[in-house]
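Appendix B.2, paired examples.
Example (i):
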Amino acid sequence: MAFDLGDGVRRERRGGAHEGRGSPRSTAPAAAPINHFKWQVSGDKKYLEQLYTAQIEECQLLEYIDTEGHLWIDRVGMPYTELQRARLGGIALVRGGTYPGHAVSWKFHSPATAQSLAILIPDATAASFKVIAFNLDQIPVRATLTGWHVDPGTWEITQGIDTNGDDVANNSIQTRLVTFERSKSLDFVFPARATTVLTLKLKTPGKPYWLRPDLGLSREDVVVDGQTLHVKIHSVGAAESPATTVVFRDAAGRVVASAPVPLLAAPIDLVPKTCDVDLVLPSGVSIPGGSVEIDPDRQVEEITEINNRVCL
């Protein structure tokens, strides 16, 4: 977009991560999303090469103003949205964003790191997506994939090796069915110096999230009073939560105390719905290293189980 500086000279304004600064380069930051989408449509990785080359150049040219010379003291300027699109199947976090849109997240098990796998997810939807991953290490990489913007249900996973570079598995192909949904994790092993292709497809839809209850607690909801734990449990789901139990596990994982949790309504009127429960621990039971867990037998089908347990 052209604008006038007032001296009769017209300048070009470019968008992107550094909106307002002109760029003499042929590949401006504003073109980055376009190149990503070109790759998604065509499958040609040259567009990603152009995208990342331009971003590296941008970082080098603007290193000072984006670090020590930055206009603000609470951030540095880095292009990171397209890397999220490629590795996570969507953008998990961006300044000004109010809701994450990534399909998955990754955890790499030592000695592997986030740089051990070159990952591309070209076509993520809530019901299917593909992962193309090349292991750069000389040993197999163990990684955990966690679902986020995915629909719940029974998923079919096809895993194999791509030996000819067409992003399709043609060797050592295996297929399995798993239960997969938001916040559920799957473990994979990626062979050394090989391209693994994962194809995940929803085969049988499960109960929608918006029809599920969700119980939760945080560390602040557990108050230690001698050998008694005062626990506040929250109902934060979309449906009434049935009665269940809450337990205390010692450092060895053994259940040493339990208490009933009553039925809790859903906060559909935007008023918090909570209950207070006391866990009385036997004499001599050590609290440090233990944990408080809701619904230890996994009888309630919740939106997520990641807020069901806190460590003390």
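Example (ii):
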Amino acid sequence: MQGLPTHFLAGSGELTGLMRNHDWSASPLGPPDAWPQSLKTLVRFALETRFPMFLAWGEALTFLYNDAYSEILGKRHPAALGRPFQEIWSDIWEEVLPFIKRALEGESVYLENLPLTMYRKGYAEPTWFTFTYYPLRDDAGVIRGMSYVCMETTRHVLAEL
């Protein structure tokens, strides 16, 4: 099994442990020792922040996320780790695809209280999120993926209705 070396990730959150022990050789990213330094740095940052965050890297937009984002995934966690973005969020793919494309073209996207119907707990539920998608670059400065940092605003929006 090809997991992340202990020195690669400091911290003790659930996702840190899952990422250390994940068989990355079976993912499009390949073994972590072959990852560009930029991706390693981004992963460390994502795991250390308390904001819900994910990274989608490479042609398949392979999904990496932190503990705070695992709550948003609901029942999709932990199976979402290392899988393609489109496969994980197929129910909202068409709604978010324009923002993904903009990020992959080099534009940062910021939206407040975007409504999305999500199936994260086994049923359709209305949700709202304030978030940013932004491009992620490799060591040579080439865009290789995108990131998402968010705050779920569902409770706030519903309280104002």
